[in-house]
Design brief:
The protein is built from 10 helices and 10 strands. The strands form 2 sheets. It has a 5-stranded mixed beta sheet with strand order 3-2-1-4-5, with helices on both faces. The protein has a 5-stranded mixed beta sheet with strand order 8-7-6-9-10, sandwiched between helices. Helices cover 40% and strands 19% of the residues. A hairpin with a 6-residue loop joins β2 (11-17) and β3 (24-31). The protein is globular, with a radius of gyration of 20 Å. The protein has 325 residues and is of the alpha/beta class. It binds 5'-O-[(R)-(carboxyoxy)(hydroxy)phosphoryl]adenosine and zinc ion. Zinc ion (ZN) binds next to α4.
């Protein structure tokens, strides 16, 4: 079995995965959403302190599995430096005390493998990752053959929901709050400009849209927020589908997946489904509980890395907060 740890942002999570069957045997996550909600976003130092409390608590529950562990895996990149280090320090301590190898996992590859919890991975596929930290399209052929073909030049899709919710005083995380507020709202009332619609670039940008929404909020009353939320969600999604339409002009993937925390968004899911229909591409989604950050996806990647003996030494395993894929 492999014990995996996730602490790249505001979720403390540990999983145990069986190597031979890829079965998830244990998973527990303690989220810090309530603690960060008053600030309208994640406060890194507070997040680190909460990981330091939560991770040892979860680890205690894993003790029955200790004797069967063959490796310990941990998210090393990308993420917040002060929170990644909490998981990495714990992983190193476990590696030393149980004398088992260390596996450093890329969080973004983790999101890709969130599609394959408890099952075999199937490639090739094109993946849209929409989270709080990333908005990117990747062509995935295997664990080690991943090409990013489009990414955001500034804010991410999820982050723009967080910022809009903060401007409306709704709390954090903004995605589910904006999605709920948008239900029944007029998606056409605010004619926000679709970002980069005239640009030939296969790239994303959310900072301009965020600013346009900010001005609409300043200009409007609280009674307008529902329509602002609906119009914002519509344009934020249109931006993704417009660029994906461009992608499908030159590539015809048979399987397309949406992963990451924001892949839970129902409007986005319905719009992408409609986009894929004429191309007869199959849509893969993670189970809702594995869309947002979790340790099950880190453990699932670690099983693949274990089979390929992709281990790190105590000296080599380090955090890389800003690495790209
Ligand atoms: O993958 P994740 O848990 O963390 C990162 O790796 O960043 O994603 C969290 C992000 C947050 O920005 C949150 O607002 C967004 O996912 N999110 C959503 C929805 N649910 C979560 N965004 C839009 N609609 C949702 N329903
Ligand atoms: Zn994530």
């Amino acid at each position: 079995m492999i014990l995996s740890i996730e602490s790249s942002c505001d979720d403390s999570a540990i999983a145990i995965t069986e190597i031979a069957t890829k079965k998830l045997l244990f998973h527990k996550k303690i989220s810090q959403e309530i603690e960060h909600s008053v600030y309208g976003g994640v406060v890194p130092e507070l997040a680190a302190r909460l990981h330091a409390e939560a991770l040892p608590k979860i680890l205690e529950e894993c003790e029955p599995y200790f004797k069967d562990l063959k490796a310990v895996a941990v998210t090393t990149t990308p993420g917040l430096a002060v929170t990644l280090i909490e998981g990495v320090t714990m992983a190193k301590a476990i590696s030393i005390s149980l004398d088992i190898p260390l596996i450093g996992v890329n969080h973004l590859i983790g999101h890709v493998y969130s599609l394959f919890i408890d099952k075999e991975a199937v490639f090739p596929l094109t993946v849209l990752l929409v989270s709080g930290g990333h908005t990117q399209v990747m062509e995935v052929n295997s664990l080690t053959d991943i090409t990013t073909v489009a990414k955001s030049m500034d804010d991410s899709f999820g982050e723009s929901f967080d910022k809009v919710a903060k401007m409306m005083g709704l709390g954090y995380p903004g995605g589910p709050l904006i999605q709920e507020l948008a239900v029944g709202g007029d998606r056409k009332r605010y004619n926000f400009t679709i970002p980069l619609s005239q640009s030939p670039l296969l790239a994303f940008s959310y900072s301009g849209l965020k600013n346009a929404v900010r001005l609409a909020i300043l200009d409007g009353e609280a009674s307008d927020y529902k329509d602002i939320a609906a119009s914002f969600e519509h344009i934020a999604t249109q931006h993704l589908t417009q660029k994906l339409k461009k992608y499908f002009k030159t590539r015809q993937p048979k399987t397309f997946a949406i992963v990451g925390g924001a892949s839970a968004n129902l409007y986005l899911r319905s719009q992408i489904e409609a986009l894929l229909q004429p191309h007869k591409a199959k849509l893969l989604l993670s189970e809702l509980k594995y869309c947002s950050d979790n340790a099950a996806m880190i453990g699932r990647v670690a099983v693949e890395m274990y089979d390929k003996e992709m281990f790190s030494s105590l000296e080599d395993l380090d955090i890389a907060p800003r690495s790209q894929l």
